[in-house]
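Q: I have 113 residues here and want to know how they pack in 3D. Can you give me a structure?
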Amino acid sequence: LEKKKASGATISILSNTAFIESKTLRKVLIILGMDKYIDFQLYSDELGVSKPNRIAFTNMLGYVDRYRIHNPISISEITHIGDNLKADVKGAFKAGIDGFLINTQNISILNVE
């Protein structure tokens, strides 16, 4: 994350919160010291909609636009990384976003360039 952040990447979280509330996830990121790398966080319990619903991804794109208002990026420069084929990859593709699946067949987040 540090390397990606140093390269100018925007790093965000769009996550379904089935069993753990967003307020708990936010606290965990602070405790782990990872919050400093995250530009914004979106959770299904706050959005009122879960991935793969297109609305979740549309909300994320709106946040990207607001966050990068002075340095806009195109949708083709956005990759949604997740561990669920249906919710993350297929959901992203339906919203016009590239998707990358991790945690299957020993593919690690470290493989993301």
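Q: Anything worth noting?
A: The mean pLDDT is 91. The longest helix spans residues 54-67.
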